[in-house]
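Lay summary. Proteins are chains of building blocks that fold into shapes, and those shapes determine what they do. In this project we predict the shape from the chain. Here is one chain we studied, written as its sequence of building blocks.
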Amino acid sequence: MRQSQRGKKDGEIIIHKRRAKKGHGQEHGGAWKVAFADFTMAMMALFMVLWVITPQNRAQTVAADKDSNPLVDGGAGIFDGTNRQPLDFEGLPKPRVERQEPSDPRVPELQDLATLVKTLALQLDAEANLEVQVVPQGLRILIKDDQQRFMFERGSARLNDYFEVLLTRLTGVIAQVDNKIIISGHTDSIPYAGDARYNNWNLSGDRALRARNVMVAAGLPAHAVLQVTAQADGMPLLPNAPEDGANRRIEILLLTIQAEGLYRELFGDRQLRADYSAEGAELVSPADT
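And here is the predicted shape, written in a compact code that computers can read:
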């Protein structure tokens, strides 16, 4: 802005104003705001898409980690029994092998055998004395007292005649299969009243051995019996009534192939072990025995 004396009349002062020229951006000052708003909306849309798909990708990544590394936190590891990729002692993964449960052809035989045992109980009027159960380990047969009949004389391993007949007839059924068996004796919790050197452990063991001898004499192969055990009152049928006579019994367990294999691993020479002596420890493998 400047003052001019040109055309001055009677002391008037003429003032000239000059307007600055506006650039292209200033003439269209609102356009950039619209473009920026469009850009912002596009970025928000992209963020929303990424936010939606990220959890799914992360779940897939975690699942892949669990398959490739069985020791990831929360994954299927070697300790929870669900790992399908076994590890050797060098820590290197072996080729994946689909685990297949071995079929036991003896299982149907055990089910048929259970039916025969129930039929035998009806024939001998022994429903209260003879019970049979199909369990994961095989076939569990319980021979027990009732209100009228005791399997053994009180405090003794002398077998009563009725139960000797029952064991003999039962042997004819059991001998039809090749399953190995375990025989265990059980008592109630009433202390043995005789010699202080003789207790319920001795009594239950003697009774189980007596049952085994009767069955072998009746035709059961001696090698079919894997174990004769004394349980005393450690496993009552009626835990809330340990002194009840219903806890006195002989149990016969016919083993499946898998249960027999586990038994042999526990008590046999089919596993790696360390033997200790005065000279020190010696590692023994199954091939060495």
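What the prediction tells us: The domain at 106-255 is CATH 3.30.1330.60 (60s Ribosomal Protein L30; Chain: A;).
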